[in-house]
Inverse folding.
Protein backbone atom coordinates (compact mmCIF):
# COMPACT_ATOMS: atom_id res chain seq x y z
CA UNK A 1 0.00 0.00 0.00
CA UNK A 2 1.15 3.51 -0.79
CA UNK A 3 4.67 2.54 -1.64
CA UNK A 4 6.76 5.36 -2.97
CA UNK A 5 10.33 5.75 -4.06
CA UNK A 6 12.59 8.26 -2.33
CA UNK A 7 16.27 9.10 -2.54
CA UNK A 8 18.12 8.94 0.75
CA UNK A 9 21.60 10.39 1.01
CA UNK A 10 23.44 8.23 3.52
CA UNK A 11 27.12 8.58 4.39
CA UNK A 12 27.70 10.54 1.20
CA UNK A 13 25.97 8.10 -1.15
CA UNK A 14 22.50 8.35 -2.66
CA UNK A 15 20.21 5.35 -2.31
CA UNK A 16 16.91 4.88 -4.11
CA UNK A 17 14.58 3.05 -1.75
CA UNK A 18 10.95 2.05 -1.78
CA UNK A 19 9.13 2.95 1.41
CA UNK A 20 5.69 3.15 2.96
CA UNK A 21 4.80 6.34 4.89
CA UNK A 22 5.20 4.71 8.30
CA UNK A 23 8.78 3.56 7.63
CA UNK A 24 11.20 5.31 9.95
CA UNK A 25 14.74 6.35 9.13
CA UNK A 26 15.84 3.47 11.35
CA UNK A 27 13.71 0.95 9.41
CA UNK A 28 15.26 1.95 6.10
CA UNK A 29 18.87 2.24 7.26
CA UNK A 30 18.89 -1.01 9.19
CA UNK A 31 16.47 -3.24 7.31
CA UNK A 32 16.78 -1.97 3.74
CA UNK A 33 20.32 -0.65 3.51
CA UNK A 34 21.82 -3.15 5.94
CA UNK A 35 23.51 -0.56 8.13
CA UNK A 36 24.02 -2.59 11.30
CA UNK A 37 25.41 0.42 13.19
CA UNK A 38 21.89 1.91 13.50
CA UNK A 39 19.92 -0.13 15.99
CA UNK A 40 16.44 -0.51 17.39
CA UNK A 41 16.58 -0.11 21.16
CA UNK A 42 13.46 1.38 22.70
CA UNK A 43 11.38 2.96 19.92
CA UNK A 44 10.75 5.96 22.20
CA UNK A 45 13.80 8.16 21.70
CA UNK A 46 15.17 7.38 25.13
CA UNK A 47 18.06 4.93 24.63
CA UNK A 48 20.09 6.44 21.78
CA UNK A 49 21.02 3.26 19.88
CA UNK A 50 19.33 4.47 16.65
CA UNK A 51 21.13 7.84 16.71
CA UNK A 52 22.01 9.27 13.30
CA UNK A 53 23.14 12.72 12.24
CA UNK A 54 20.54 14.50 10.11
CA UNK A 55 22.29 17.40 8.38
CA UNK A 56 24.92 17.07 11.09
CA UNK A 57 22.59 17.06 14.10
CA UNK A 58 21.94 13.97 16.23
CA UNK A 59 18.34 12.77 15.94
CA UNK A 60 16.38 9.65 16.82
CA UNK A 61 16.23 7.34 13.80
CA UNK A 62 13.22 5.61 15.34
CA UNK A 63 11.24 8.88 15.60
CA UNK A 64 11.94 10.39 12.18
CA UNK A 65 10.08 9.17 9.13
CA UNK A 66 12.18 8.07 6.18
CA UNK A 67 10.17 10.33 3.90
CA UNK A 68 11.19 13.29 6.09
CA UNK A 69 14.88 12.50 5.58
CA UNK A 70 14.68 12.66 1.78
CA UNK A 71 16.69 15.66 0.60
CA UNK A 72 18.77 15.73 3.79
CA UNK A 73 22.19 14.30 4.62
CA UNK A 74 22.08 11.25 6.88
CA UNK A 75 25.26 10.17 8.62
CA UNK A 76 25.72 7.00 10.63
CA UNK A 77 28.83 6.06 12.59
CA UNK A 78 30.13 4.19 9.58
CA UNK A 79 30.11 7.47 7.70
CA UNK A 80 32.77 8.82 10.06
CA UNK A 81 35.25 6.15 9.06
CA UNK A 82 38.01 6.73 6.54
CA UNK A 83 38.96 4.71 3.47
CA UNK A 84 39.44 1.01 4.12
CA UNK A 85 37.24 1.23 7.24
CA UNK A 86 39.91 3.28 9.02
CA UNK A 87 38.65 4.19 12.47
CA UNK A 88 37.72 7.75 13.34
CA UNK A 89 40.02 9.16 16.08
CA UNK A 90 37.08 9.11 18.50
CA UNK A 91 36.52 5.41 17.79
CA UNK A 92 40.21 4.82 18.49
CA UNK A 93 39.82 6.53 21.85
CA UNK A 94 36.88 4.21 22.60
CA UNK A 95 39.06 1.22 21.71
CA UNK A 96 42.07 2.42 23.70
CA UNK A 97 39.97 3.15 26.78
CA UNK A 98 37.89 -0.02 26.67
CA UNK A 99 34.77 2.13 26.31
CA UNK A 100 32.95 -0.47 24.26
CA UNK A 101 31.95 -3.85 25.61
CA UNK A 102 28.97 -5.41 23.83
CA UNK A 103 29.06 -2.39 21.50
CA UNK A 104 25.33 -2.00 21.04
CA UNK A 105 25.31 1.60 22.35
CA UNK A 106 28.66 2.59 20.81
CA UNK A 107 27.50 4.20 17.52
CA UNK A 108 25.03 6.42 19.39
CA UNK A 109 27.64 7.32 21.99
CA UNK A 110 30.17 8.19 19.29
CA UNK A 111 27.80 10.33 17.19
CA UNK A 112 26.37 12.19 20.18
CA UNK A 113 29.72 12.97 21.76
CA UNK A 114 31.29 13.91 18.42
CA UNK A 115 28.50 16.46 17.92
CA UNK A 116 29.17 17.85 21.41
CA UNK A 117 32.93 18.22 20.87
CA UNK A 118 32.51 19.66 17.38
CA UNK A 119 30.04 22.27 18.58
CA UNK A 120 32.28 23.41 21.40
CA UNK A 121 35.31 23.69 19.11
CA UNK A 122 33.44 25.35 16.25
CA UNK A 123 32.05 27.93 18.67
CA UNK A 124 35.57 28.60 19.98
CA UNK A 125 34.68 27.38 23.47
CA UNK A 126 36.84 25.27 25.73
CA UNK A 127 36.43 21.54 25.25
CA UNK A 128 33.39 20.16 27.09
CA UNK A 129 33.90 19.28 30.73
CA UNK A 130 33.23 15.80 32.08
CA UNK A 131 29.99 17.11 33.54
CA UNK A 132 28.91 18.55 30.17
CA UNK A 133 29.69 15.23 28.49
CA UNK A 134 27.60 13.41 31.10
CA UNK A 135 24.70 15.79 30.43
CA UNK A 136 24.95 15.36 26.65
CA UNK A 137 24.92 11.56 27.01
CA UNK A 138 21.87 11.40 29.26
CA UNK A 139 19.91 9.93 26.35
CA UNK A 140 22.44 7.24 25.51
CA UNK A 141 22.07 4.16 27.68
CA UNK A 142 24.90 1.67 28.20
CA UNK A 143 24.23 -1.47 30.18
CA UNK A 144 27.82 -2.78 30.19
CA UNK A 145 30.49 -0.24 30.95
CA UNK A 146 29.11 1.81 33.81
CA UNK A 147 29.91 4.87 31.63
CA UNK A 148 33.27 5.69 33.29
CA UNK A 149 35.38 4.44 30.41
CA UNK A 150 33.08 6.07 27.88
CA UNK A 151 33.59 9.42 29.59
CA UNK A 152 37.36 8.78 29.72
CA UNK A 153 37.42 8.06 25.98
CA UNK A 154 35.43 11.17 25.09
CA UNK A 155 37.58 13.36 27.31
CA UNK A 156 40.69 12.01 25.62
CA UNK A 157 39.23 12.75 22.19
CA UNK A 158 38.08 16.22 23.28
CA UNK A 159 41.64 17.00 24.39
CA UNK A 160 43.02 15.74 21.08
CA UNK A 161 40.53 17.77 19.09
CA UNK A 162 41.20 20.90 21.14
CA UNK A 163 44.97 20.50 20.63
CA UNK A 164 44.50 20.02 16.92
CA UNK A 165 42.43 23.18 16.79
CA UNK A 166 45.07 25.11 18.75
CA UNK A 167 47.94 23.83 16.59
CA UNK A 168 49.22 26.45 14.10
CA UNK B 1 7.30 -2.13 18.17
CA UNK B 2 6.35 -0.76 14.80
CA UNK B 3 3.93 2.07 14.08
CA UNK B 4 0.55 1.20 12.58
CA UNK B 5 0.10 2.11 8.91
CA UNK B 6 -0.91 5.68 8.16
CA UNK B 7 -1.05 8.10 5.25
CA UNK B 8 1.42 10.95 5.16
CA UNK B 9 1.24 14.37 3.61
CA UNK B 10 3.69 17.25 3.88
CA UNK B 11 1.99 20.64 4.23
CA UNK B 12 3.82 23.52 2.59
CA UNK B 13 1.99 26.11 4.72
CA UNK B 14 -0.10 26.34 7.89
CA UNK B 15 -3.12 27.19 5.71
CA UNK B 16 -2.69 23.98 3.77
CA UNK B 17 -2.30 22.05 7.01
CA UNK B 18 -5.53 23.57 8.36
CA UNK B 19 -7.40 22.56 5.19
CA UNK B 20 -6.04 19.02 5.41
CA UNK B 21 -6.86 18.86 9.11
CA UNK B 22 -10.42 20.09 8.53
CA UNK B 23 -10.89 17.47 5.81
CA UNK B 24 -9.27 14.67 7.82
CA UNK B 25 -11.33 15.16 10.96
CA UNK B 26 -10.48 13.20 14.09
CA UNK B 27 -8.41 10.68 12.15
CA UNK B 28 -5.80 13.28 11.16
CA UNK B 29 -2.92 14.38 13.37
CA UNK B 30 -0.37 17.14 12.97
CA UNK B 31 3.25 15.98 12.94
CA UNK B 32 5.65 18.64 14.22
CA UNK B 33 8.88 17.49 15.90
CA UNK B 34 7.40 14.03 16.42
CA UNK B 35 9.17 13.41 19.73
CA UNK B 36 5.90 12.60 21.53
CA UNK B 37 3.65 11.55 18.65
CA UNK B 38 6.13 9.12 17.09
CA UNK B 39 6.73 7.22 20.36
CA UNK B 40 2.94 7.01 20.76
CA UNK B 41 2.72 5.53 17.27
CA UNK B 42 5.61 3.13 17.85
CA UNK B 43 3.96 1.99 21.09
CA UNK B 44 0.59 1.86 19.30
CA UNK B 45 -0.98 4.25 21.78
CA UNK B 46 -2.29 6.32 18.85
CA UNK B 47 -3.77 5.18 15.52
CA UNK B 48 -4.24 8.21 13.28
CA UNK B 49 -5.05 7.51 9.64
CA UNK B 50 -3.32 10.62 8.35
CA UNK B 51 -0.20 12.47 9.50
CA UNK B 52 0.07 16.07 8.31
CA UNK B 53 3.72 17.07 8.47
CA UNK B 54 4.05 20.81 9.10
CA UNK B 55 7.86 20.82 9.15
CA UNK B 56 8.05 22.36 5.65
CA UNK B 57 5.48 25.04 6.59
CA UNK B 58 7.61 27.43 8.63
CA UNK B 59 11.26 28.50 8.69
CA UNK B 60 10.93 31.67 10.76
CA UNK B 61 13.44 32.26 13.57
CA UNK B 62 12.45 33.72 16.98
CA UNK B 63 11.89 37.48 16.96
CA UNK B 64 11.06 40.28 19.38
CA UNK B 65 8.50 43.00 18.70
CA UNK B 66 7.82 46.17 20.66
CA UNK B 67 10.24 48.10 22.85
CA UNK B 68 12.43 46.76 25.61
CA UNK B 69 9.87 47.53 28.33
CA UNK B 70 6.78 46.01 26.75
CA UNK B 71 8.29 43.68 24.20
CA UNK B 72 6.89 40.40 23.02
CA UNK B 73 9.00 37.38 22.18
CA UNK B 74 7.48 35.63 19.17
CA UNK B 75 8.40 31.98 18.91
CA UNK B 76 7.18 30.30 15.72
CA UNK B 77 5.50 26.98 16.54
CA UNK B 78 8.30 24.99 14.93
CA UNK B 79 11.00 26.53 17.12
CA UNK B 80 13.07 23.55 18.25
CA UNK B 81 13.95 23.04 21.89
CA UNK B 82 17.64 23.45 21.06
CA UNK B 83 16.89 26.92 19.73
CA UNK B 84 15.03 27.79 22.95
CA UNK B 85 18.10 26.66 24.86
CA UNK B 86 20.66 28.55 22.78
CA UNK B 87 19.06 31.47 20.95
CA UNK B 88 20.13 34.85 22.26
CA UNK B 89 16.65 36.40 22.02
CA UNK B 90 15.19 33.56 24.10
CA UNK B 91 18.00 33.58 26.66
CA UNK B 92 17.56 37.33 27.19
CA UNK B 93 13.81 37.59 26.58
CA UNK B 94 12.73 34.53 28.56
CA UNK B 95 15.59 33.13 30.66
CA UNK B 96 13.06 31.00 32.55
CA UNK B 97 12.18 29.04 29.41
CA UNK B 98 15.78 28.80 28.20
CA UNK B 99 16.76 27.33 31.57
CA UNK B 100 13.81 24.95 31.90
CA UNK B 101 14.35 23.43 28.45
CA UNK B 102 17.59 21.93 29.78
CA UNK B 103 15.32 19.42 31.48
CA UNK B 104 13.40 18.43 28.35
CA UNK B 105 14.34 15.07 26.82
CA UNK B 106 17.86 14.57 25.51
CA UNK B 107 20.01 16.09 22.76
CA UNK B 108 18.15 14.26 19.99
CA UNK B 109 14.72 15.14 21.35
CA UNK B 110 15.72 18.80 21.68
CA UNK B 111 17.02 18.86 18.09
CA UNK B 112 13.58 17.89 16.74
CA UNK B 113 10.97 18.71 19.39
CA UNK B 114 9.08 21.98 18.93
CA UNK B 115 7.45 24.47 21.28
CA UNK B 116 4.14 24.39 19.39
CA UNK B 117 4.08 20.62 19.39
CA UNK B 118 4.89 20.50 23.08
CA UNK B 119 2.03 22.87 23.99
CA UNK B 120 -0.43 21.11 21.65
CA UNK B 121 0.53 17.75 23.19
CA UNK B 122 -0.54 19.21 26.57
CA UNK B 123 1.36 16.82 28.79
CA UNK B 124 0.54 17.39 32.45
CA UNK B 125 4.25 17.20 33.35
CA UNK B 126 5.43 19.58 30.62
CA UNK B 127 8.27 21.92 31.55
CA UNK B 128 7.46 24.09 28.55
CA UNK B 129 3.77 24.25 29.42
CA UNK B 130 4.72 25.21 32.97
CA UNK B 131 6.91 28.10 31.76
CA UNK B 132 4.29 29.24 29.25
CA UNK B 133 1.78 29.52 32.09
CA UNK B 134 4.17 31.30 34.44
CA UNK B 135 5.12 33.90 31.83
CA UNK B 136 1.54 34.62 30.82
CA UNK B 137 2.22 33.44 27.28
CA UNK B 138 -0.37 33.31 24.50
CA UNK B 139 -0.55 31.05 21.48
CA UNK B 140 -1.76 32.04 18.04
CA UNK B 141 -4.13 29.35 16.74
CA UNK B 142 -4.98 29.22 13.06
CA UNK B 143 -8.22 27.60 11.99
CA UNK B 144 -10.52 27.59 8.97
CA UNK B 145 -11.81 31.03 10.03
CA UNK B 146 -8.40 32.62 10.53
CA UNK B 147 -6.18 33.35 13.51
CA UNK B 148 -7.13 33.84 17.14
CA UNK B 149 -5.00 34.42 20.20
CA UNK B 150 -5.47 32.10 23.16
CA UNK B 151 -3.91 32.64 26.60
CA UNK B 152 -2.02 29.52 27.62
CA UNK B 153 -4.00 29.68 30.87
CA UNK B 154 -7.04 28.74 28.73
CA UNK B 155 -5.28 26.24 26.48
CA UNK B 156 -5.11 23.07 28.56
CA UNK B 157 -8.27 21.03 29.10
CA UNK B 158 -6.95 17.88 30.78
CA UNK B 159 -4.60 14.99 30.13
CA UNK B 160 -3.12 15.50 26.63
CA UNK B 161 -6.12 17.62 25.68
CA UNK B 162 -6.35 21.26 24.64
CA UNK B 163 -9.24 23.63 24.08
CA UNK B 164 -8.23 24.09 20.43
CA UNK B 165 -10.88 23.25 17.86
CA UNK B 166 -10.23 20.10 15.86
CA UNK B 167 -9.00 21.99 12.78
CA UNK B 168 -6.88 24.56 14.67
CA UNK B 169 -3.09 24.61 14.67
CA UNK B 170 -0.72 26.57 16.90
CA UNK B 171 1.43 28.79 14.67
CA UNK B 172 3.13 31.07 17.22
CA UNK B 173 3.83 31.37 20.91
CA UNK B 174 3.96 34.91 22.28
CA UNK B 175 5.79 35.56 25.54
CA UNK B 176 6.12 38.94 27.29
CA UNK B 177 9.81 39.83 27.32
CA UNK B 178 11.50 39.72 30.74
CA UNK B 179 11.43 43.12 32.44
CA UNK B 180 13.94 44.82 34.72
CA UNK B 181 13.41 43.82 38.38
CA UNK B 182 11.92 40.53 37.28
CA UNK B 183 13.19 37.27 38.74
CA UNK B 184 12.58 33.73 37.60
CA UNK B 185 13.19 30.23 38.81
CA UNK B 186 12.53 26.70 37.62
CA UNK B 187 12.84 23.58 39.75
CA UNK B 188 11.79 20.01 39.16
CA UNK B 189 12.20 16.57 40.66
CA UNK B 190 12.82 13.58 38.39
CA UNK B 191 13.79 9.97 39.03
CA UNK B 192 16.35 10.07 36.21
CA UNK B 193 17.72 13.16 34.48
CA UNK B 194 15.72 13.87 31.29
CA UNK B 195 12.76 11.81 32.46
CA UNK B 196 9.24 13.24 32.85
CA UNK B 197 9.00 15.53 35.86
CA UNK B 198 7.35 14.13 38.97
CA UNK B 199 6.67 17.73 39.97
CA UNK B 200 7.98 20.89 38.28
CA UNK B 201 7.57 24.51 39.37
CA UNK B 202 8.13 27.68 37.36
CA UNK B 203 8.05 31.04 39.13
CA UNK B 204 8.16 34.59 37.80
CA UNK B 205 8.41 37.49 40.27
CA UNK B 206 8.16 41.23 39.60
CA UNK B 207 9.37 43.76 42.16
CA UNK B 208 8.18 47.36 42.27
CA UNK B 209 10.59 49.73 40.53
CA UNK B 210 11.19 52.10 43.45
CA UNK B 211 10.41 50.22 46.65
CA UNK B 212 11.55 46.76 45.66
CA UNK B 213 8.36 45.34 47.12
CA UNK B 214 6.62 42.37 45.63
CA UNK B 215 4.51 43.63 42.71
CA UNK B 216 3.44 40.43 40.93
CA UNK B 217 3.99 36.70 41.27
CA UNK B 218 3.06 33.90 38.89
CA UNK B 219 3.58 30.31 39.99
CA UNK B 220 2.95 27.39 37.63
CA UNK B 221 3.12 23.73 38.58
CA UNK B 222 3.38 20.54 36.54
CA UNK B 223 2.81 16.96 37.63
CA UNK B 224 0.16 17.84 40.21
CA UNK B 225 -3.03 17.14 38.25
CA UNK B 226 -4.45 16.41 34.83
CA UNK B 227 -2.80 19.51 33.34
CA UNK B 228 -0.16 22.10 34.22
CA UNK B 229 -1.77 24.66 36.51
CA UNK B 230 -1.30 28.25 37.61
CA UNK B 231 -1.49 28.72 41.38
CA UNK B 232 -4.44 30.82 42.51
CA UNK B 233 -3.10 34.41 42.82
CA UNK B 234 -4.98 34.83 46.12
CA UNK B 235 -2.48 32.37 47.63
CA UNK B 236 0.55 34.41 46.56
CA UNK B 237 3.10 35.56 49.16
CA UNK B 238 2.55 38.88 50.94
CA UNK B 239 6.20 39.90 50.77
CA UNK B 240 9.64 38.66 49.79
CA UNK B 241 10.41 37.65 53.39
CA UNK B 242 11.41 34.00 53.58
CA UNK B 243 8.63 33.24 56.08
CA UNK B 244 6.00 34.69 53.71
CA UNK B 245 7.39 32.76 50.74
CA UNK B 246 7.39 29.50 52.69
CA UNK B 247 3.86 30.13 53.94
CA UNK B 248 2.64 30.77 50.39
CA UNK B 249 4.30 27.56 49.17
CA UNK B 250 2.54 25.63 51.95
CA UNK B 251 -0.85 27.22 51.09
CA UNK B 252 -0.46 26.44 47.40
CA UNK B 253 0.58 22.82 48.03
CA UNK B 254 -2.30 22.36 50.48
CA UNK B 255 -4.84 23.18 47.76
CA UNK B 256 -3.47 20.65 45.28
CA UNK B 257 -4.99 17.21 44.91
CA UNK B 258 -2.42 15.22 42.96
CA UNK B 259 -3.29 11.58 42.41
CA UNK B 260 -1.19 8.51 43.10
CA UNK B 261 0.48 6.81 40.18
CA UNK B 262 3.30 4.40 39.49
CA UNK B 263 5.90 7.16 39.79
CA UNK B 264 4.89 8.76 43.08
CA UNK B 265 2.08 9.01 45.61
CA UNK B 266 -0.17 12.05 45.65
CA UNK B 267 1.09 12.88 49.13
CA UNK B 268 4.70 12.88 47.94
CA UNK B 269 3.80 15.10 44.99
CA UNK B 270 2.11 17.57 47.34
CA UNK B 271 5.20 17.63 49.53
CA UNK B 272 7.40 18.18 46.47
CA UNK B 273 5.13 21.00 45.33
CA UNK B 274 5.61 22.76 48.69
CA UNK B 275 9.38 22.29 48.84
CA UNK B 276 10.05 23.16 45.19
CA UNK B 277 7.70 26.17 45.23
CA UNK B 278 9.41 27.58 48.33
CA UNK B 279 12.82 27.02 46.76
CA UNK B 280 11.74 28.61 43.45
CA UNK B 281 10.14 31.62 45.15
CA UNK B 282 13.28 32.35 47.16
CA UNK B 283 15.51 32.05 44.11
CA UNK B 284 13.21 34.16 41.90
CA UNK B 285 13.04 36.92 44.55
CA UNK B 286 16.81 36.89 44.97
CA UNK B 287 17.29 37.14 41.21
CA UNK B 288 14.74 39.97 40.96
CA UNK B 289 16.49 41.88 43.74
CA UNK B 290 19.82 41.44 41.99
CA UNK B 291 18.58 42.29 38.50
CA UNK B 292 18.17 45.77 37.10
CA UNK B 293 18.28 47.50 40.51
Amino acid sequence: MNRQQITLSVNGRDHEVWIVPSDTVLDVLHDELGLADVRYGCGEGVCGTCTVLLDGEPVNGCLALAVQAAGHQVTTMRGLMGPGEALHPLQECFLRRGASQCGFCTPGMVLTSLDLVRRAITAGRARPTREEIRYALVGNLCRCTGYTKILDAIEEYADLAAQEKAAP
Amino acid sequence: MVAPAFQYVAAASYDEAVRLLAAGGDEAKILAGGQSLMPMLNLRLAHPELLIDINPADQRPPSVTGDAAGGLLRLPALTRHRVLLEHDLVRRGCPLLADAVRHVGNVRVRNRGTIGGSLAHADHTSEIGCCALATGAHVVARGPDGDRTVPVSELFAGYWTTTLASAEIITDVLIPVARPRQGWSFHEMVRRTSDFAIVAVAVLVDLAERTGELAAVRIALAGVGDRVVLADPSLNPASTADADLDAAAARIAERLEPSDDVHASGEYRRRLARVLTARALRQACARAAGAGS
Observations:
- The mean pLDDT of chain B is 95.
